[in-house]
Amino acid sequence: MKTYIADLQKIKNKSNAIKKAAGIIKNGGIVVFPTETVYGIGANAFNKDACARIFKIKGRKSDNPLIVHASDIEMVKKIGVLSKKDQQIMERLWPGPVTIILKAMPVISKVITGGIDTVAVRIPSNKIAINLIKYAGVPIAAPSANPSGFPSATSGDHAEEYFNGKVNAILKNGRTKYGIESTVIDLSTMEILRPGSFNIKKLERIIGSKSRSPKKNSATKSPGMKYRHYAPKTAVFMFDGDSKKLQNICDGLNNFAVIGPNTFCNKMQIQCKKIILTRHGADDAKRNLFDALIKLDKLHVAFGIIVVSKDMSDDPALINRIEKATSNIKILDKESLLNVLGNS
Ligand code: TXA
Ligand code: MG
């Protein structure tokens, strides 16, 4: 398939390119576009065949529902049922990186909801995403732009590498603002189904009530949480000690990469590749994490170690993504490293 690719950072007439992509959406095509969290791979939410194509292109399981993106509250009302109270909360959270679960309107196909009777909705703050939806005149169903299981695209280049030739259009606009996906919340129970770019404490302040972790395994509530996620092809593990300790553990091995804070990487004196994950704490790490994991696969090393500093471990969304990418495997000593390498 010939993919129309527009790099919005390089062209003058951005709105023409966005209008062209919006026309593609309206006519049943698939468009990869930037949001403030990660890139999305989108289709007209009222066209179930187009939405079904997203699952095919991503290799996504059919029971893992899509988020529907709207440009304003009036559009949200066409997607899900909302009370006055829901609406008041939404007006304070949106536009932004929060996804809210609502009872789905009958026009929303079970293809989008994975067969359940609720639908995930959000109004993004990214101007290109908003304009794309406005010009298309329909809500856009869009999961993160990545082949299922792999790190989400957080730059136009990632989007192009993943989907050139597989979708009708790609709108590139450099790197995304936050770098990880939206926070998913069920307002009826105040359960955080997925920690994400919207800070949970701030969310609680706005809503005026405490959030909860899902009682049951969140996989039953948010189907996507049960699948393999965010993982590069290269084996990757967590480590939370100091650089001396990691040097001792990795002594004698040289074909590996350390993904960590710049201060940690600078101290590594044994031979290894280094990917700087952050220079400025946890927010910067979130912004760079998926890019770092995608880079790791290009280094052709035997394994990668993600160094988790204290401020990183205090960030639930960041830790959630790192735990998933590493299948929650922590390196404690040389023996545990050799053990997991034997198994990977
Ligand atoms: O930031 C984001 O949320 C990005 C951008 C593109 O908006 N989208 C994204 O979509 O991350 P995706 O498909 O990768 O993740 C959607 C998550 C999945 O974990 C899915 O199971 C959950 O939202 N979800 C979707 N519909 C749901 C529903 N009705 N009830 C519970 N969880 C739902
Ligand atoms: Mg995803």
The overall pLDDT, averaged over residues, is: 95
The name CATH uses for the topology of the largest domain is DHBP synthase
The level 1 CATH classification of the largest domain is Alpha Beta
Number of helices: 15
Number of domains: 2
What can you see in these coordinates?
By secondary structure, the protein is of the alpha/beta class. It has two domains: 4-207, Alpha-Beta Complex (DHBP synthase), CATH 3.90.870; 235-343, Threonylcarbamoyl-AMP synthase, C-terminal domain (Rossmann fold). It contains 15 helices and 15 strands. The strands form two sheets. Strands 1, 2, 3, 4, 5, 6, 7, 8, 9, 10 and 11 form an eleven-stranded mixed beta sheet that branches. Helix 11 links the parallel strand 13 (256-261) and strand 14 (273-278). The longest helix is centred in the C-terminal third of the chain and has 18 residues, at 282-299. The radius of gyration is 20 Å and the shape is globular. The relative contact order is 0.14. Threonylcarbamoyladenylate is lined by residues 35, 37-38, 40, 64-67, 97, 99, 101, 113, 116, 118-120, 142-144, 181-182, 184, 193-194, 221-225.
